[in-house]
Here is the input.
Amino acid sequence: PYSTASFPLYAEEVPNVNQQPQDSISPSIYMLCQKAKAFNVWIVGGSIPEQDGSSLYNTCVIIDSNGTIVGKHRKIHLFDIDVPGKIKFKESDALSAGTTPTLVQTPWGPIGVGICYDIRFPEYAMLLR
Here is the structure.
């Protein structure tokens, strides 16, 4: 479920680029790395709630056909909305914002990575050019 209360319950550690995940610590990322290697495919996997110390992030990993993490993106633009009497949802109540645009080199050319609300901002896409 996508709710701020669920983020801590489902969060896992996400290894950095070129680090190998451990099944007991990063079960989702471990599985994606195994599948990428087994099927000789690249995978853009996410988003996954990431626990890093006391911070939580909405994270996406890019895995090459060898099962290696070649990119890691933490969502930069958190979605907060408050329409009185209608809806209130604030990712910032639970998540920390990433700080770095993500551009991954692939055999087909560079691929810019954004999660959900990140793509709402053309300035972000311009940074990836």
